[in-house]
Amino acid sequence: MSPSSSVDRRREARRAAREATREAVLPEEAAGAGRPARTGGGQEPLGGALRRAGLVRLLVLQLLDGDEPAYGNRLIDRIRELSGGLVAVNPNTMYPLLRALEEEGLAVGEWEHPVRRSRRFYRLTDAGAVERERLRGEVVPTLDEVADAVAALRRELVG
């Protein structure tokens, strides 16, 4: 493999991870019986702004600092649990994101069984903790805006 193809693959992995963080979807079952989760133009009704602000990346960085083992499928499950099913991340999103975080020095991964391929456990680095705090400053205001909008809708509909 030539050095340029290695660089190209890393660039492509970073690009894919950036795109992947934008791919978390609002599941159809959360949108209501038979109604599509997405609105016209491919925008999520509530989650689009949060995804663009970096919600999935922030959640992953937050969960990597937890007590439970952090590996791709477990992170996917935890994000679904934390969001009550409103944010779903698929493996095609999660694994490129984890690889990008590792390349950026924000996470460190180790194989469960070093001799054979198994689950890869990730943990947050000090640089990852700094990035998490920076990203939190960007995401939380958007999260507050979405919460305020939902509260206003609820007040209007329920009284």
UniProtKB/TrEMBL annotation:
Ranges of biased composition (kind: Basic and acidic residues): 7-22
Gene3D superfamilies assigned: Winged helix-like DNA-binding domain superfamily/Winged helix DNA-binding domain
Record's compositionally biased regions (Low complexity): 23-38
Pfam entry (one): PadR
Coiled-coil ranges per UniProt: none
InterPro entries: Tscrpt_reg_PadR_N, WH-like_DNA-bd_sf, WH_DNA-bd_sf
Source domain of life: Bacteria
Region of interest called Disordered, as start-end residue ranges on this chain: 1-46
Residue stretches making up the Transcription regulator PadR N-terminal domain: 60-133
PANTHER family per UniProt: TRANSCRIPTION REGULATOR, PADR-LIKE FAMILY, TRANSCRIPTIONAL REGULATOR YQJI
Name of the protein: Transcriptional regulator PadR-like family
Species of the source: Patulibacter medicamentivorans
